[in-house]
Design brief:
alpha/beta, 13% strand, binds ligand ME8
Protein backbone atom coordinates (compact mmCIF):
# COMPACT_ATOMS: atom_id res chain seq x y z
CA UNK A 1 0.00 0.00 0.00
CA UNK A 2 1.42 3.37 -0.97
CA UNK A 3 1.93 5.69 2.00
CA UNK A 4 0.97 9.34 1.95
CA UNK A 5 1.98 11.81 4.67
CA UNK A 6 0.42 15.26 4.64
CA UNK A 7 0.94 18.06 7.16
CA UNK A 8 -0.53 21.52 7.68
CA UNK A 9 1.14 24.51 9.26
CA UNK A 10 0.68 24.49 13.03
CA UNK A 11 -1.27 27.54 14.17
CA UNK A 12 -0.19 30.18 16.67
CA UNK A 13 -2.37 30.18 19.75
CA UNK A 14 -2.14 33.89 20.51
CA UNK A 15 -5.81 34.12 19.53
CA UNK A 16 -8.66 31.75 18.64
CA UNK A 17 -8.74 30.35 15.09
CA UNK A 18 -9.95 32.45 12.18
CA UNK A 19 -11.31 31.49 8.80
CA UNK A 20 -7.84 31.44 7.18
CA UNK A 21 -6.84 28.66 9.58
CA UNK A 22 -10.02 26.77 8.71
CA UNK A 23 -9.29 27.16 5.00
CA UNK A 24 -5.85 25.54 5.16
CA UNK A 25 -7.07 22.65 7.27
CA UNK A 26 -10.02 21.98 4.98
CA UNK A 27 -7.72 21.92 1.93
CA UNK A 28 -5.42 19.44 3.68
CA UNK A 29 -8.35 17.28 4.74
CA UNK A 30 -9.64 17.19 1.18
CA UNK A 31 -6.23 16.06 -0.07
CA UNK A 32 -5.97 13.44 2.71
CA UNK A 33 -9.43 12.05 1.93
CA UNK A 34 -8.71 12.00 -1.80
CA UNK A 35 -5.61 9.88 -1.18
CA UNK A 36 -7.58 7.59 1.14
CA UNK A 37 -10.07 7.12 -1.65
CA UNK A 38 -7.16 6.04 -3.81
CA UNK A 39 -6.54 3.35 -1.24
CA UNK A 40 -3.31 4.88 0.04
CA UNK A 41 -2.11 4.59 3.61
CA UNK A 42 -2.61 8.21 4.66
CA UNK A 43 -1.21 9.99 7.71
CA UNK A 44 -2.56 13.49 8.22
CA UNK A 45 -1.00 15.75 10.84
CA UNK A 46 -2.07 19.14 12.15
CA UNK A 47 -1.51 20.99 15.41
CA UNK A 48 -0.67 24.17 17.29
CA UNK A 49 2.51 26.26 17.55
CA UNK A 50 2.73 27.16 21.23
CA UNK A 51 6.27 28.29 22.09
CA UNK A 52 6.13 31.64 20.27
CA UNK A 53 6.84 34.90 22.07
CA UNK A 54 3.66 36.30 20.53
CA UNK A 55 1.65 33.67 22.43
CA UNK A 56 3.35 34.70 25.69
CA UNK A 57 2.80 38.37 24.89
CA UNK A 58 -0.93 37.80 24.22
CA UNK A 59 -1.23 35.92 27.52
CA UNK A 60 0.44 38.80 29.38
CA UNK A 61 -1.90 41.28 27.73
CA UNK A 62 -4.87 39.14 28.79
CA UNK A 63 -3.41 38.89 32.30
CA UNK A 64 -3.46 35.10 32.16
CA UNK A 65 -0.74 32.57 32.97
CA UNK A 66 0.96 31.68 29.67
CA UNK A 67 0.48 27.91 29.93
CA UNK A 68 -3.18 28.33 30.83
CA UNK A 69 -3.62 30.76 27.98
CA UNK A 70 -2.09 28.49 25.32
CA UNK A 71 -4.00 25.49 26.71
CA UNK A 72 -7.24 27.43 26.34
CA UNK A 73 -6.61 28.55 22.78
CA UNK A 74 -5.15 25.24 21.66
CA UNK A 75 -8.39 23.61 22.80
CA UNK A 76 -10.26 25.90 20.41
CA UNK A 77 -8.15 24.70 17.48
CA UNK A 78 -8.73 21.07 18.47
CA UNK A 79 -12.43 21.80 18.71
CA UNK A 80 -12.40 23.47 15.30
CA UNK A 81 -10.72 20.41 13.77
CA UNK A 82 -13.60 18.30 15.08
CA UNK A 83 -16.25 20.75 13.96
CA UNK A 84 -14.75 20.87 10.48
CA UNK A 85 -14.85 17.07 10.40
CA UNK A 86 -11.12 16.83 9.73
CA UNK A 87 -9.78 13.31 9.37
CA UNK A 88 -6.40 14.10 10.98
CA UNK A 89 -4.58 11.14 12.53
CA UNK A 90 -2.82 13.26 15.13
CA UNK A 91 -2.85 16.77 16.57
CA UNK A 92 0.51 17.90 17.87
CA UNK A 93 0.95 20.65 20.46
CA UNK A 94 4.50 21.95 20.60
CA UNK A 95 4.41 22.24 24.40
CA UNK A 96 4.08 18.46 24.61
CA UNK A 97 7.04 16.52 26.00
CA UNK A 98 7.38 14.38 22.86
CA UNK A 99 7.95 17.55 20.86
CA UNK A 100 10.29 19.29 23.31
CA UNK A 101 12.50 16.20 23.37
CA UNK A 102 12.89 16.00 19.59
CA UNK A 103 13.40 19.77 19.21
CA UNK A 104 16.30 19.63 21.66
CA UNK A 105 17.70 16.59 19.90
CA UNK A 106 17.64 18.39 16.55
CA UNK A 107 19.32 21.46 18.06
CA UNK A 108 22.03 19.24 19.51
CA UNK A 109 22.53 17.51 16.17
CA UNK A 110 22.97 20.86 14.42
CA UNK A 111 25.47 21.83 17.11
CA UNK A 112 27.40 18.55 16.92
CA UNK A 113 27.58 18.94 13.17
CA UNK A 114 29.40 22.23 13.70
CA UNK A 115 26.56 24.23 12.17
CA UNK A 116 25.83 26.30 15.30
CA UNK A 117 28.10 29.01 16.66
CA UNK A 118 27.81 31.74 19.28
CA UNK A 119 27.65 35.39 18.26
CA UNK A 120 25.70 38.61 18.65
CA UNK A 121 22.54 39.58 16.83
CA UNK A 122 21.71 43.14 16.25
CA UNK A 123 18.78 44.10 14.09
CA UNK A 124 15.01 43.97 13.78
CA UNK A 125 12.58 41.29 14.92
CA UNK A 126 8.90 41.19 13.95
CA UNK A 127 6.87 39.54 16.66
CA UNK A 128 3.96 39.06 14.24
CA UNK A 129 6.11 36.86 11.99
CA UNK A 130 8.32 35.70 14.85
CA UNK A 131 11.12 36.46 12.43
CA UNK A 132 14.28 38.48 12.05
CA UNK A 133 13.78 41.06 9.39
CA UNK A 134 16.25 43.22 7.49
CA UNK A 135 16.05 46.96 6.94
CA UNK A 136 15.63 46.30 3.21
CA UNK A 137 12.46 44.27 3.82
CA UNK A 138 10.69 46.98 5.83
CA UNK A 139 7.99 49.06 4.18
CA UNK A 140 7.79 52.55 5.68
CA UNK A 141 9.60 51.21 8.71
CA UNK A 142 7.02 48.43 9.21
CA UNK A 143 6.87 44.69 8.60
CA UNK A 144 5.17 44.24 5.22
CA UNK A 145 3.21 41.19 6.48
CA UNK A 146 1.93 42.55 9.80
CA UNK A 147 2.14 46.31 9.30
CA UNK A 148 3.73 46.75 12.71
CA UNK A 149 7.04 48.31 13.69
CA UNK A 150 9.57 45.56 14.44
CA UNK A 151 11.45 45.40 17.73
CA UNK A 152 15.11 46.34 17.78
CA UNK A 153 17.14 43.46 19.21
CA UNK A 154 20.74 43.43 20.32
CA UNK A 155 21.62 40.27 22.12
CA UNK A 156 23.92 37.34 22.41
CA UNK A 157 22.66 34.44 20.35
CA UNK A 158 23.59 31.19 18.66
CA UNK A 159 23.62 31.24 14.88
CA UNK A 160 22.85 28.42 12.47
CA UNK A 161 25.12 28.35 9.40
CA UNK A 162 22.29 28.78 6.92
CA UNK A 163 24.62 30.49 4.43
CA UNK A 164 26.47 27.20 4.00
CA UNK A 165 23.38 25.61 2.41
CA UNK A 166 22.54 28.28 -0.18
CA UNK A 167 23.78 26.38 -3.23
CA UNK A 168 22.13 23.07 -2.42
CA UNK A 169 18.85 24.76 -1.54
CA UNK A 170 18.87 26.67 -4.79
CA UNK A 171 19.28 23.38 -6.63
CA UNK A 172 16.38 21.79 -4.71
CA UNK A 173 14.16 24.74 -5.49
CA UNK A 174 15.08 24.64 -9.15
CA UNK A 175 14.21 20.95 -9.18
CA UNK A 176 10.67 21.85 -8.08
CA UNK A 177 10.48 21.36 -4.31
CA UNK A 178 7.90 24.14 -4.01
CA UNK A 179 4.58 24.53 -5.84
CA UNK A 180 3.09 26.57 -7.44
CA UNK A 181 5.80 27.90 -9.70
CA UNK A 182 5.18 31.56 -8.83
CA UNK A 183 5.84 30.83 -5.14
CA UNK A 184 8.92 28.79 -6.03
CA UNK A 185 10.32 31.67 -8.09
CA UNK A 186 9.82 34.14 -5.25
CA UNK A 187 12.06 32.03 -3.06
CA UNK A 188 14.59 31.28 -5.80
CA UNK A 189 15.08 35.02 -6.31
CA UNK A 190 15.59 35.59 -2.60
CA UNK A 191 18.04 32.70 -2.27
CA UNK A 192 20.01 34.01 -5.26
CA UNK A 193 20.47 37.22 -3.28
CA UNK A 194 22.50 35.19 -0.75
CA UNK A 195 21.64 33.64 2.62
CA UNK A 196 22.63 35.05 6.00
CA UNK A 197 23.26 32.82 8.98
CA UNK A 198 20.18 32.58 11.16
CA UNK A 199 19.87 33.46 14.83
CA UNK A 200 18.34 30.34 16.37
CA UNK A 201 18.20 31.16 20.07
CA UNK A 202 16.69 33.92 22.17
CA UNK A 203 18.15 35.21 25.42
CA UNK A 204 16.14 36.94 28.14
CA UNK A 205 12.88 35.21 27.36
CA UNK A 206 11.20 32.83 29.74
CA UNK A 207 8.73 31.13 27.41
CA UNK A 208 10.01 28.54 24.95
CA UNK A 209 12.09 25.37 24.72
CA UNK A 210 15.38 25.30 26.59
CA UNK A 211 18.53 25.24 24.42
CA UNK A 212 20.23 21.95 25.38
CA UNK A 213 23.76 23.38 25.36
CA UNK A 214 23.13 26.67 27.20
CA UNK A 215 20.68 27.22 30.07
CA UNK A 216 20.46 30.94 29.35
CA UNK A 217 18.86 30.57 25.91
CA UNK A 218 15.59 29.36 24.45
CA UNK A 219 15.29 27.80 20.98
CA UNK A 220 14.03 30.26 18.37
CA UNK A 221 10.39 29.33 17.83
CA UNK A 222 10.62 28.64 14.09
CA UNK A 223 13.29 26.02 14.66
CA UNK A 224 11.10 24.14 17.12
CA UNK A 225 7.91 24.70 15.11
CA UNK A 226 9.27 23.10 11.94
CA UNK A 227 10.43 20.10 13.92
CA UNK A 228 6.76 19.22 14.65
CA UNK A 229 6.60 17.41 11.32
CA UNK A 230 9.00 14.77 12.61
CA UNK A 231 8.49 14.97 16.38
CA UNK A 232 4.88 13.85 15.85
CA UNK A 233 6.27 10.76 14.10
CA UNK A 234 8.60 10.09 17.05
CA UNK A 235 11.83 10.83 15.21
CA UNK A 236 14.34 9.16 15.10
CA UNK A 237 13.27 5.65 16.11
CA UNK A 238 9.47 5.68 15.99
CA UNK A 239 7.61 3.28 13.74
CA UNK A 240 5.59 6.18 12.40
CA UNK A 241 8.74 7.99 11.33
CA UNK A 242 10.06 4.93 9.58
CA UNK A 243 6.76 4.39 7.85
CA UNK A 244 5.66 7.87 6.84
CA UNK A 245 8.66 10.17 6.55
CA UNK A 246 9.43 11.96 4.22
CA UNK A 247 6.28 14.06 4.03
CA UNK A 248 4.57 13.87 0.67
CA UNK A 249 3.06 17.32 1.12
CA UNK A 250 3.69 20.15 3.57
CA UNK A 251 0.69 22.41 3.03
CA UNK A 252 1.33 26.01 4.09
CA UNK A 253 0.20 29.59 3.50
CA UNK A 254 2.18 32.04 1.41
CA UNK A 255 3.44 34.06 4.40
CA UNK A 256 5.58 31.19 5.71
CA UNK A 257 7.08 29.95 2.46
CA UNK A 258 10.64 31.05 3.35
CA UNK A 259 10.75 29.06 6.57
CA UNK A 260 9.57 25.88 4.86
CA UNK A 261 11.42 26.19 1.59
CA UNK A 262 14.77 27.39 2.90
CA UNK A 263 15.24 26.97 6.64
CA UNK A 264 13.54 23.58 7.00
CA UNK A 265 15.49 21.91 4.15
CA UNK A 266 18.74 23.34 5.56
CA UNK A 267 18.00 21.86 9.00
CA UNK A 268 17.13 18.50 7.48
CA UNK A 269 20.22 18.40 5.30
CA UNK A 270 22.42 19.31 8.25
CA UNK A 271 20.86 16.52 10.33
CA UNK A 272 21.04 14.10 7.40
CA UNK A 273 17.29 13.55 7.31
CA UNK A 274 15.45 12.99 4.05
CA UNK A 275 13.69 16.02 2.56
CA UNK A 276 9.93 16.42 2.10
CA UNK A 277 8.73 15.67 -1.41
CA UNK A 278 6.63 18.78 -1.94
CA UNK A 279 5.79 22.06 -0.28
CA UNK A 280 2.46 23.39 -1.49
CA UNK A 281 1.79 27.04 -0.87
CA UNK A 282 -1.80 28.27 -0.75
CA UNK A 283 -3.13 31.81 -0.90
CA UNK A 284 -5.02 33.81 1.72
CA UNK A 285 -8.67 34.17 2.52
CA UNK A 286 -9.25 37.91 2.54
CA UNK A 287 -12.16 39.99 3.65
CA UNK A 288 -13.17 42.56 1.05
CA UNK A 289 -9.72 42.21 -0.47
CA UNK A 290 -8.00 42.90 2.84
CA UNK A 291 -5.85 40.60 4.91
CA UNK A 292 -7.50 39.28 8.06
CA UNK A 293 -6.09 41.08 11.07
CA UNK A 294 -7.05 41.91 14.61
CA UNK A 295 -6.22 45.55 14.05
CA UNK A 296 -8.61 45.80 11.09
CA UNK A 297 -11.26 44.09 13.24
CA UNK A 298 -12.23 41.87 10.30
CA UNK A 299 -11.57 38.49 11.91
CA UNK A 300 -14.20 35.94 10.88
CA UNK A 301 -14.89 33.14 13.36
CA UNK A 302 -15.28 29.79 11.56
CA UNK A 303 -17.08 28.24 14.55
CA UNK A 304 -19.94 30.73 14.23
CA UNK A 305 -20.22 30.00 10.50
CA UNK A 306 -20.30 26.25 11.13
CA UNK A 307 -23.01 26.74 13.76
CA UNK A 308 -25.07 28.74 11.35
CA UNK A 309 -24.52 27.01 8.00
CA UNK A 310 -22.93 23.63 8.78
CA UNK A 311 -19.36 22.45 8.24
CA UNK A 312 -19.94 21.13 4.74
CA UNK A 313 -21.34 24.44 3.54
CA UNK A 314 -18.24 26.23 4.77
CA UNK A 315 -15.96 23.55 3.33
CA UNK A 316 -17.76 23.70 -0.02
CA UNK A 317 -17.65 27.47 -0.16
CA UNK A 318 -13.94 27.75 0.61
CA UNK A 319 -12.91 25.01 -1.80
CA UNK A 320 -15.23 26.14 -4.60
CA UNK A 321 -14.66 29.87 -4.29
CA UNK A 322 -10.89 30.14 -3.88
CA UNK A 323 -8.69 28.81 -6.68
CA UNK A 324 -6.01 26.83 -4.86
CA UNK A 325 -2.75 28.78 -4.70
CA UNK A 326 -4.47 32.13 -5.13
CA UNK A 327 -6.07 34.58 -2.71
CA UNK A 328 -9.85 34.70 -2.47
CA UNK A 329 -12.52 36.62 -0.64
CA UNK A 330 -14.92 35.52 2.02
CA UNK A 331 -18.27 37.13 2.67
CA UNK A 332 -21.45 35.74 4.17
CA UNK A 333 -23.42 37.12 1.22
CA UNK A 334 -21.47 35.10 -1.30
CA UNK A 335 -21.63 32.04 0.93
CA UNK A 336 -25.42 32.28 1.07
CA UNK A 337 -25.62 32.86 -2.70
CA UNK A 338 -23.54 29.74 -3.36
CA UNK A 339 -25.53 27.78 -0.82
CA UNK A 340 -28.83 28.62 -2.47
CA UNK A 341 -27.69 28.06 -6.03
CA UNK A 342 -25.23 25.15 -5.87
CA UNK A 343 -26.29 23.25 -2.77
CA UNK A 344 -30.03 23.87 -2.41
CA UNK A 345 -30.98 24.31 -6.06
CA UNK A 346 -28.63 22.04 -7.96
CA UNK A 347 -27.56 19.20 -5.67
CA UNK A 348 -30.43 19.29 -3.15
CA UNK A 349 -33.05 19.40 -5.89
CA UNK A 350 -31.53 16.58 -7.91
CA UNK A 351 -31.60 14.33 -4.87
CA UNK A 352 -35.05 15.39 -3.86
CA UNK A 353 -36.61 15.06 -7.30
CA UNK A 354 -35.02 11.69 -7.97
CA UNK A 355 -36.05 10.19 -4.64
CA UNK A 356 -39.54 11.65 -4.93
CA UNK A 357 -39.97 9.94 -8.30
CA UNK A 358 -38.70 6.63 -6.93
CA UNK A 359 -41.24 6.92 -4.11
CA UNK A 360 -44.07 7.94 -6.36
CA UNK A 361 -43.55 5.72 -9.37
CA UNK A 362 -41.80 2.68 -7.92
CA UNK A 363 -43.01 2.40 -4.38
CA UNK A 364 -39.70 3.57 -2.91
CA UNK A 365 -37.48 0.98 -4.62
CA UNK A 366 -34.92 1.46 -7.38
CA UNK A 367 -36.52 -0.07 -10.50
CA UNK A 368 -35.18 -3.06 -12.40
CA UNK A 369 -34.07 -2.18 -15.95
CA UNK A 370 -33.75 -4.03 -19.22
CA UNK A 371 -29.99 -3.96 -19.74
CA UNK A 372 -30.09 -5.27 -23.30
CA UNK A 373 -30.68 -1.79 -24.71
CA UNK A 374 -29.40 1.16 -22.72
CA UNK A 375 -29.04 3.57 -25.64
CA UNK A 376 -31.40 6.12 -24.07
CA UNK A 377 -29.07 6.65 -21.15
CA UNK A 378 -25.77 5.96 -22.92
CA UNK A 379 -24.99 9.63 -23.25
CA UNK A 380 -25.40 10.23 -19.53
CA UNK A 381 -23.23 7.27 -18.71
CA UNK A 382 -20.35 8.46 -20.89
CA UNK A 383 -20.68 12.00 -19.52
CA UNK A 384 -20.40 10.62 -15.99
CA UNK A 385 -17.35 8.50 -16.70
CA UNK A 386 -15.70 11.31 -18.60
CA UNK A 387 -16.34 13.65 -15.64
CA UNK A 388 -14.65 11.19 -13.32
CA UNK A 389 -11.54 11.05 -15.45
CA UNK A 390 -11.26 14.80 -15.53
CA UNK A 391 -11.84 15.07 -11.81
CA UNK A 392 -9.04 12.61 -11.06
CA UNK A 393 -6.61 14.84 -12.94
CA UNK A 394 -7.85 17.97 -11.18
CA UNK A 395 -7.61 16.36 -7.76
CA UNK A 396 -4.05 15.22 -8.31
CA UNK A 397 -3.20 18.77 -9.33
CA UNK A 398 -4.96 20.09 -6.16
CA UNK A 399 -7.25 22.07 -8.44
CA UNK A 400 -10.24 21.75 -6.14
CA UNK A 401 -12.39 24.48 -7.52
CA UNK A 402 -12.19 23.06 -11.06
CA UNK A 403 -12.95 19.57 -9.73
CA UNK A 404 -16.04 20.91 -7.97
CA UNK A 405 -17.08 22.82 -11.07
CA UNK A 406 -16.94 19.53 -13.01
CA UNK A 407 -19.01 17.69 -10.43
CA UNK A 408 -21.60 20.44 -10.62
CA UNK A 409 -21.68 20.26 -14.42
CA UNK A 410 -22.62 16.61 -14.03
CA UNK A 411 -25.30 17.47 -11.45
CA UNK A 412 -26.71 20.06 -13.80
CA UNK A 413 -26.72 17.70 -16.78
CA UNK A 414 -28.76 15.32 -14.64
CA UNK A 415 -31.19 18.10 -13.72
CA UNK A 416 -31.47 19.00 -17.40
CA UNK A 417 -32.02 15.37 -18.29
CA UNK A 418 -35.07 15.33 -15.99
CA UNK A 419 -36.50 18.36 -17.79
CA UNK A 420 -35.84 16.85 -21.20
CA UNK A 421 -36.99 13.31 -20.58
CA UNK A 422 -40.16 14.39 -18.72
CA UNK A 423 -40.66 11.40 -16.39
CA UNK A 424 -44.18 12.63 -15.56
CA UNK A 425 -45.11 12.01 -19.23
CA UNK A 426 -43.08 8.77 -19.51
CA UNK A 427 -45.00 7.27 -16.60
CA UNK A 428 -48.00 6.99 -18.88
CA UNK A 429 -46.37 6.66 -22.29
CA UNK A 430 -43.14 4.69 -21.87
CA UNK A 431 -42.66 2.99 -18.47
CA UNK A 432 -39.69 1.05 -19.79
CA UNK A 433 -37.81 4.26 -20.59
CA UNK A 434 -38.92 5.78 -17.28
CA UNK A 435 -37.17 2.97 -15.42
CA UNK A 436 -33.95 3.65 -17.31
CA UNK A 437 -34.17 7.39 -16.72
CA UNK A 438 -34.64 6.87 -12.99
CA UNK A 439 -31.87 4.31 -12.85
CA UNK A 440 -29.47 6.71 -14.62
CA UNK A 441 -30.33 9.56 -12.25
CA UNK A 442 -29.80 7.32 -9.25
CA UNK A 443 -26.45 6.16 -10.68
CA UNK A 444 -25.32 9.75 -11.15
CA UNK A 445 -26.29 10.57 -7.56
CA UNK A 446 -24.31 7.55 -6.39
CA UNK A 447 -21.27 8.80 -8.33
CA UNK A 448 -21.78 12.30 -6.92
CA UNK A 449 -21.99 10.93 -3.37
CA UNK A 450 -18.52 9.41 -3.88
CA UNK A 451 -16.96 12.32 -5.75
CA UNK A 452 -18.00 14.93 -3.16
CA UNK A 453 -16.75 12.88 -0.22
CA UNK A 454 -13.29 14.50 0.03
CA UNK A 455 -14.96 17.92 0.02
CA UNK A 456 -18.19 17.31 1.96
CA UNK A 457 -17.94 14.04 3.84
CA UNK A 458 -21.10 14.32 5.92
CA UNK A 459 -23.20 15.41 2.95
CA UNK A 460 -21.94 12.33 1.15
CA UNK A 461 -23.12 10.19 4.09
CA UNK A 462 -26.49 11.90 4.23
CA UNK A 463 -27.10 11.43 0.50
CA UNK A 464 -26.12 7.78 0.62
CA UNK A 465 -28.35 7.14 3.63
CA UNK A 466 -31.38 8.57 1.81
CA UNK A 467 -30.49 6.53 -1.26
CA UNK A 468 -30.52 3.40 0.85
CA UNK A 469 -26.79 2.73 0.45
CA UNK A 470 -25.43 1.64 3.78
CA UNK A 471 -21.72 1.58 2.98
CA UNK A 472 -20.05 4.89 3.70
CA UNK A 473 -17.41 6.22 1.34
CA UNK A 474 -13.97 5.35 2.61
CA UNK A 475 -10.89 3.67 1.29
CA UNK A 476 -10.76 2.13 -2.14
CA UNK A 477 -13.84 3.92 -3.36
CA UNK A 478 -12.49 4.78 -6.75
CA UNK A 479 -13.32 1.22 -7.78
CA UNK A 480 -16.98 2.01 -6.98
CA UNK A 481 -16.97 4.59 -9.74
CA UNK A 482 -18.08 1.94 -12.21
CA UNK A 483 -21.36 2.49 -14.05
CA UNK A 484 -24.17 0.07 -13.26
CA UNK A 485 -23.29 -1.04 -9.73
CA UNK A 486 -26.52 0.23 -8.17
CA UNK A 487 -28.72 -2.65 -7.08
CA UNK A 488 -32.32 -2.67 -8.41
CA UNK A 489 -34.89 -2.98 -5.61
CA UNK A 490 -32.72 -0.91 -3.23
CA UNK A 491 -35.12 0.71 -0.77
CA UNK A 492 -34.70 4.46 -0.50
CA UNK A 493 -35.61 6.48 2.57
CA UNK A 494 -36.28 10.05 1.64
CA UNK A 495 -35.81 12.61 4.36
CA UNK A 496 -36.22 16.38 4.55
CA UNK A 497 -34.23 18.40 1.94
CA UNK A 498 -30.50 18.27 2.78
CA UNK A 499 -29.97 21.94 1.97
CA UNK A 500 -33.16 23.92 2.61
CA UNK A 501 -32.95 27.31 0.91
CA UNK A 502 -31.81 30.20 3.06
CA UNK A 503 -34.13 33.20 2.89
CA UNK A 504 -32.12 36.29 2.04
O1 LIG B 1 2.37 30.97 10.60
N1 LIG B 1 -5.86 32.76 4.77
O2 LIG B 1 0.91 30.32 12.28
P1 LIG B 1 -0.37 31.19 11.89
C1 LIG B 1 -5.31 31.55 4.57
N2 LIG B 1 2.78 29.08 13.52
N3 LIG B 1 -4.33 31.05 5.32
C2 LIG B 1 -3.89 31.82 6.32
C3 LIG B 1 -4.41 33.08 6.60
C4 LIG B 1 -5.46 33.56 5.77
N4 LIG B 1 -6.05 34.72 5.93
N5 LIG B 1 -3.77 33.59 7.67
C5 LIG B 1 -2.87 32.67 8.04
C6 LIG B 1 2.10 30.35 11.61
N6 LIG B 1 -2.94 31.60 7.22
C7 LIG B 1 3.15 29.44 12.22
C8 LIG B 1 3.31 28.24 11.33
S1 LIG B 1 4.40 25.87 10.74
C9 LIG B 1 5.69 24.98 11.26
C10 LIG B 1 4.34 27.24 11.81
C11 LIG B 1 -2.13 30.38 7.27
O3 LIG B 1 -1.36 30.86 12.94
C12 LIG B 1 -0.67 30.67 7.44
O4 LIG B 1 -0.07 31.06 6.23
O5 LIG B 1 -0.01 32.60 11.66
C13 LIG B 1 -0.18 29.34 7.95
O6 LIG B 1 0.01 28.43 6.91
C14 LIG B 1 -1.33 28.91 8.86
O7 LIG B 1 -2.48 29.64 8.42
C15 LIG B 1 -1.07 29.22 10.32
O8 LIG B 1 -0.83 30.59 10.49
Amino acid sequence: MKKFYITTAIDYVNAPPHIGHAYEKVCADTIARWHRMKNEDVYFLTGTDENAQKNAQAAREAGVDVKKFVDGNSKKFIELAKLLNLSNNDFIRTTEKRHVKVSQLIFKKLYDKGDIYKGNYSGYYCEGCEAFITEKELEEGKCPEHHIKPKVLKEETYFFKLSKYGKIILKLLEEGLVEPESRRNEIINRVKGGLNDLSVTRKNVDWGIQVPIDQGHKIYVWIDALVNYISALEYPDGELFKKYWPADIHLIGKGINWFHSVIWPAILISCEIELPKKIFVHGYVNIKGQKISKSLKNVVDPVKLIDKYGADTLRYFLLREIPFGEDGNFSQDSLVTRFNSDLANDLGNLLNRTLTMIEKYFDGRLPEIDRSDLSEIENLKSKTLDTCEQIFKKMDALDFNSALKRIWQLINSANKFIEESKPWVLVKQDPDKLRKVIYALYEILRFVSILIWPFMPSTSDRIRRQMGISRKVKEDFLARLTWGLSQPKTKISKEKPIFPRIKV
